[in-house]
Amino acid sequence: MNYVGQLAGQVFVTVKELYKGLNPATLSGCIDIIVVRQPNGSLQCSPFHVRFGKMGVLRSREKVVDIEINGESVDLHMKLGDNGEAFFVQETDNDQEVIPMYLATSPILSEGASRMESQLKRNSADRIRGLDANTSAQVSPPSETPSSGSLVKKRRKRRRKSQLGMATRIKHESSSSDEEHAAAKPSSTSHLPLLSSVSYKKTLRLTSEQLKSLKLKNGPNDVVFSVTTQYQGTCRCEGTIYLWNWDDKVVISDIDGTITRSDTLGHILPTLGKDWTHQGIAKLYHKVSQNGYKFLYCSARAIGMADMTRGYLHWVNERGTVLPQGPLLLSPSSLFSALHREVIEKKPEKFKVQCLTDIKNLFFPNTEPFYAAFGNRPADVYSYKQVGVSLNRIFTVNPKGELVQEHAKTNISSYVRLCEVVDHVFPLLKRSHSSDFPCSDTFSNFTFWREPPPPFENQDVHSASA
Fold this sequence. Notes:
This protein is α/β, with parallel strands linked by helices. It has 14 helices and 19 strands. Strands 3-2-10-9-5-6-7-8 form an 8-stranded mixed beta sheet. The relative contact order is 0.12.
C-alpha cells in the first residue's frame, strides 16, 4: 500500500506541475446546449458557450464561426471576441435601449462583403503604390535652362493676382452665403431622423424562430463549431444539442467524487487510463434512463476540459454497460479558476446554483423538472435543494462507495443495492420499447401459465341478486 501511495503522490505532483505550465488561453471547448419545447410549440435554449484557444485560433478578433448540425451547415454564424469566446450578433432597432459597452459589437460580414472589403484594400494599396511612383518622378530635379528664372517669376505674379481676386469675391459674397446657409440649415437637419439607428449587441441565446430553423430532432443532435484561418487551418469544437420536452423528468449527476472516487484524482487518473469510477454506477444510471428519465451531468470543471470530460463519460464501461447519454454542463471560466474553486476552495456551488437555475427556468410552467440528484458533498446537497430537488431523492456518496439518502442519513446503501430497487425509487414514467419491462402484457410467462378463471352461469348471478 505504501508503494501505491508513493506512486499516486508522484503522479499527482507530476500532473500538478503540468497544470502549472499549461496556459489556459490555449484550451478550446464547448458546453452542450439544452433546447426545451414549450407547451405552445415554441423553443427555449440554454447559452451557447464556445471558446477557441490560441492553439486553434491565434488571432481570434472578428473571426466568423461556422456551425454544422448533424453534418449539415446552417444559416447561422457566430463571431469571436478578443479572448476567443464566441457569440451571436443580434440586431436591435430600439433607440431607447441602452446597450452597455461590453455588449456592443459590429455586424458579421458576409462572404461577399468580406471579399469586397479585401478587394477595396487591395485596390487602395495598388493606388498608393502608383502614387508613390508618380511622386517620385515628379520630385526629380528639372533641367536648368537660361529662361527658367523668368518663367518662375511670371507664374508667381499670376498666382498672387488670382488670390487677390478670390479674396475680394469671397468678401462681397459672404453676407449672401450666410443667409443661404441659415436657410438651408433646417432642411439639412430635417433629414437626420430619417437615418437608420441600427445597433448590434452580443448574445449567447437564439430566438424560437432561429432554433426552429436548425431542424433539430428529439434527443441528441451533433453540433460542430469551426473557424478557418489563413495559417492555422480549420479549428473545430464538437458538442451536442439536446431537444427535450417541457414535461421531461431530469436526474442531475455530479462527476468528480460522484462518478469518480475522489475530486482530485478524478481529474488525473482517468487521463492516465486508470479506472477510478464507483462500482455499479453505470448499471444504475442505465436502468434509471430506461425508465424514462433524462440525465444531466453538471461539473465545475472549466470549459477547456470539455473534450476530456466528455471522452471520460463515454469511456466508462462496466461489463458492457455504459453511462446514459446526456448534456454536459461545465463552467465557462478558465481552467485555473475552475480548478481552484473545485479542489482548493471546495465551493463548486457558486457555479452549480446559477447553472441549474438557468436550466430550470427553461422548463416553465413545469416548476420541478429535476426529479433526483447525485453528489458527494454538502455543497452539492445545498445546490440541489436550491433548485427544488426533494430531500428524499438527493443521494451523496463517499470515497468508500457508501451511498446516503439525505432524508434518512442512517440508512447507508450503495449503487449496487440501489440498482436492485431502482423501479421503486425511480418508477416507470411511460411504457416504451426502452422501458425496463421488455415482455408485453399479453404474452409473458405469467399470462401463458396462469389458469383460466372458472366458468359461471348467468342464472346463478340472477338468483343471487334476487
